[in-house]
Amino acid sequence: MGTEILFWEDTYLFGCESKVVDLNVQEGAIIVTLDRTICYAASGGQPSDEGKIEVEKEIEHENVDKTLMIKELHWSGNNILHSCEVRDPIIAKILAVGDKVKVSINPEKRILHARLHSAGHLIDAALENIGIQLRSSKAYHYPNGAYVEYMGKIEQNIREDVLRRLEKECNRLIEIGGPIFKEVASGDRVTELCRGEFPSFLPKDKPVRLICVANLWIPCGGKNLRDVREILNVKITKIRSNK
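The structure assignment produced for this chain is given below.
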């Protein structure tokens, strides 16, 4: 069945109660699998959340640090693995499958990452609105230099004009605002939402998650805002071509 992924339903959920379903104790670290999590594991060009796991069980020893600081998050099949720093070796010895824990993340980082991610999708919509038909192929939604890559080319002699119009359209859409919708769909419904074309990279025999930003439906498994207005602003600094 796998980990229940709570951030797919609510980007703004910053804490939850969970249960340990698997443990892998290593030297100085412990890898925890939970029945449910709010923690996003880096994928799709988005960074992982920062957070911690608080062990709730009563411990006879005094002054035991029951906090596990999450150092890395990654997918393993349908599960998200939480690789944690063990501050107190006693915790590594007594934590067991079935124990209840509290999970929390850094809310400021979560919203920043969601803003960068939703802004990337907004650029997709804005490009269409100014008459440029390109299909996104890759994205990097990190604070140290976010970008979106597209299949196709914008000629050198029009790039400055496209940059200006694209940035203006992005910020016009932000000013108008509008909810960012999400839907889990399959088959013909995916084709309908994606304007009559089933994306070739999606599995045809499984449900997929899509989000809608500024009237453009896009397959997406990441963190998004509730409303386009929350992106606040978009600044596009360069359009370049990969050789």
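Interim note for the steering committee: The radius of gyration is 21 Å. The first strand starts at residue 4 and ends at 5.
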